[in-house]
Amino acid sequence: MAAACVFNLQSTVPKLVSAREKLLVIGGGMAGARAIEEIEARAPSRFAITMYAAEPYAVYNRILLSDVLAGAKNPEGIFLNSLSWFAERQIDLRIGEKIASIDCARKLVLTESGAAQSYDYLIIATGSLPLVPDIANVATPGVFVFRTIDDCRLIASYAKGRRRAAVIGGGLLGLEAARGLLGHNLKVTVVEVMPYLMAQQLDPESAALLARTMEAMGLEILFEKATERVLGNGAAQGLRFKDGTEIETDMVVISCGIRPNVRLAVEAGLRVERGIVCDDRMRTSDPAIYSVGECVEHRGRVYGLVAPLYEQARVLADNLTGSSPAAAYAGSKLSTRLKVMGVDLVSIGDGRAMGGEGHTVTRYVEPELGVYKKLVVSGGKLVGAILLGDTDAASTLIDAYEREIELPRRHSELLFSRAGAGDPNAAVEAMAESAVVCTCHQVRKSVLVEHIRAGAALDDLCAITRAGTGCGGCKSHLEAMMAAYGSDRADPAASYYVKAVPLDKPALVREIKRLELRSVSAVLSRLGIGVDDPESKPGLASLLKTIWGRGYVDERDARFINDRVHANIQNDGTFSVIPRIYGGVTSPAELRRIADAAEKYHARMIKITGGQRIDLLGVGKSDLPAIWRDLKMPSGHAYTKAFRTCKTCVGVEFCRYGVGDSTRLGIAIEKRFQGIETPHKMKFAASGCARNCAEATVKDVGVVAIEGGWQIHVGGAAGSRVRAADLLAAVKSQDEALKIMGRFIQYYRENARYAERCYAFVERVGIKRLREVLIDDSDGDADRLDREVEAAAAAYRDPWSEGAAPFEPTQFAEAIAVEGAASIRGNP
Amino acid sequence: MILQTTQEGENAPVFVTEIESIPPGQGRCFTVGGKAIALFRLRDGRIFALDNSCPHRGGPLGAGLVGIDFNTGREAVVCPLHAFKFSLRDGAGISNELRVRHHRVELRGAAIHVAVSGGE
Ligand code: SRM
Ligand SMILES: Cc1cc2nc3c(=O)[nH]c(=O)nc-3n(C[C@H](O)[C@H](O)[C@H](O)COP(=O)(O)OP(=O)(O)OC[C@H]3O[C@@H](n4cnc5c(N)ncnc54)[C@H](O)[C@@H]3O)c2cc1C
Ligand code: SF4
Ligand code: FES
Does the model's ipTM exceed the 0.85 cut? Predict the structure, then answer.
């Protein structure tokens, strides 16, 4: 993306004959772009718009830079308006062009390269610049600020191979930066001049709780340290503080706040105090010049969040286009959310007051859980709140704060959402209709519900309302709202096994068997609504394989790429290779082959997985057949919805506590069930005693040895959810254990929805019912289940054998080169 | 990066491959004059061409699932990395605002020719 974006669209924008009024925008940030969007929405093509964007990238969501620094997002993933968006509206976007001065008298701007451009109207949206305090030697290499994509890149590349980083500033952004740096394998120290964190938003007690949570993540925090000097010459090596103490560090990120970027306005003679002074219509002291964003000062206030600048952009557009000339900006009420994974913190208004001065303070504190909730009420209205550790009540409180709702007398009720904490479904239902769900874009519940009831899917909902496209903090609420308000009326399709075939799973299975449909295309054309829907195909492929086993007609277009090439695709288009290591037990010869193969095929990383085997990452698609051949080990199925692994512990053979041979049982489990495809992946574990070193009670299926037998647990989870497994049965022998596990697998294959993990399935069906069917044989179906799973096990064939005999000639072909008159290269 | 749906800015069609090299309902990636182009063959035999690289984060579109999108009825590819969908006809995002460059395809018998669009 980098350099490719730096070009000039001017030549492609046709010269317009009509004399449209010329509108110039200085600054390609979120405020300038939003102002243009609002203007175009009210008066499409009314102005001939040119936008000057000094950064080499426009327009991106600056809020998400914290995620970029943390490595959770790529810079490419945070762009807002695409270049084609500008092109379609014939907006002349000048990426990389910086304005050097404004000549108000002649209504001209001059670019840094000396070109002049006249305007009828001008919008200054130059944002702000990082505030760098007076620290000696601050220009030393290794000292950074954190404001732009380029800053992120520089920080990330400098961090490679270094050990320690210091962040100066313990505010919102400083903490997000610090958290991001932890992801780069650095030991990170936050240096704060105040005696506590986030002094703009928190009181000392909540700040102390937050500090504890952040320290538990591995951050070190120093308080009351005013940095005096960066140590080191040629490269940062440490910091010295005014109290004479020092720390060592390899790099420094300064995050001490922002200052409005007002140089152009000052030099042009506009009225500037802290920011560019604007009236309620967002006009500066020159009536042809407007301003918007972080560079603005309005009624004495300067803002540093997106919600206010979006409000400003609306008012500006109302005025400039004349669509609503009376529109006035009255200032914004602020709430913020700390975007650090693992920390829930919302601050609303000013929640720092500790009482007195007509303030009533209500607090709820649970220090062991890191929960702190506080309301500050004045004159019966909410003026501030702090929610740490449990933010379910945030939407309701933000609504009460923004609309200045008269609060009920009993304030404590407001601290708890009416529903049980942590249950997002109940939480959204308990929200007031007017509650703000997305704080970045100020989208209210009522608007969202309206779209959902009209049948909008989640994607559409985000695209139409923009909810969820700012900091992303409200995504879980949006999903819960889809569940709460979407399904019943809008979508009978919720019960369909796949979208494109209007049947639930039992009816679908019946029809497939009755009509003997053996391929995905046959099912889609006979039972579907006539579209070959790509997202419906993999579910059908999985089901058909379960029903027909070897008699299934394998159409590879119905399969994800992972299942076409039997490896897991990586973010760069290469693949990972995880051979099966039965029960986690290997041998010197196997390890040698793995080492040789890794070297020969340039695996970018060799990693011990969480599933007790070895992953070779970063292998090219066309190398897959050869690496499998060299490994001489079967596929570990780590890429597909199938039986995956069985983790084991050392068991009786070696362990002084072991009561059962968990290693042998684990190997037997893998040998028996390998390759069986299931509605979602299934992971197993076998532990030799109740100490449960193989973590069997958080697996899809786990066995634990007890004196004289084995316990079988099902439906455990320790991934995106954590759930203790339910005890299905206790049996005497390994053979019996294998039999019951097989029966459970087959029942799950036949009755679970596509992509429903065991933890959800067991919960839905209930352990009681499972025991009836699988142990007591209440339905008389146990023998059949045993036979079916036996047949599925017998049909096992190592998918990696396709390396030697490809299913399709170009199955493993990388890009096929075409030189002039083309040549076709198949499998290498 | 500006999408051209017209004949302007596109190069003369070149022969790329025979239809058999792409299994029905799948895509494959070809490098044509240094550019990675994904060709898609629908089950009904129609062929489409897009840039191989997904505008989201560069996923290989040629490895994606292909067919008729249930919600919009448009011919679509689903990116294998994060499931963004794109129209095979013009490269427009389906339920997303991104866009991938699209190339015109001429089928002469079993021979697929592609007029690669855009620059250089
Ligand atoms: C390689 C491995 C991480 C590691 O380095 O250890 C891994 C890697 C991936 N996991 Fe995992 N998981 C790995 C162990 C786990 C474990 C621990 C375990 O297996 O004991 C868990 C928790 C247990 C569980 O399965 O729930 C785990 C829970 C997940 C989940 C969450 C599933 C859930 O419903 O909660 C996903 C996402 C999903 O399946 O939708 C996931 C998905 C993924 C994917 C496949 C994401 C993807 O689609 O690309 C990752 C592939 C990375 C890559 O590029 O190759 N991985 N993943 C582990 C492979 C184990 C193996 O040998 O097969
Ligand atoms: C890491 C980080 C996390 C954040 N998190 C949040 C959050 O969670 N919630 C929230 O609400 N806000 C957050 N913010 C703040 C939010 O990003 C800003 O409020 C918003 O981006 C300001 O937009 P703006 O357009 O006013 O200014 P900017 O985004 O600074 O844009 C101004 C642009 O103008 C350009 N420019 C300046 N001078 C010239 C010139 N002379 N010629 C041409 N171009 C020029 C600059 O290069 C810049 O690209 C965060 C900010 C950062 C850095
Ligand atoms: S390996 Fe698993 S936990 Fe790690 S990034 Fe991938 S999906 Fe997430
Ligand atoms: S790279 Fe294509 S969807 Fe993310």
Answer: no
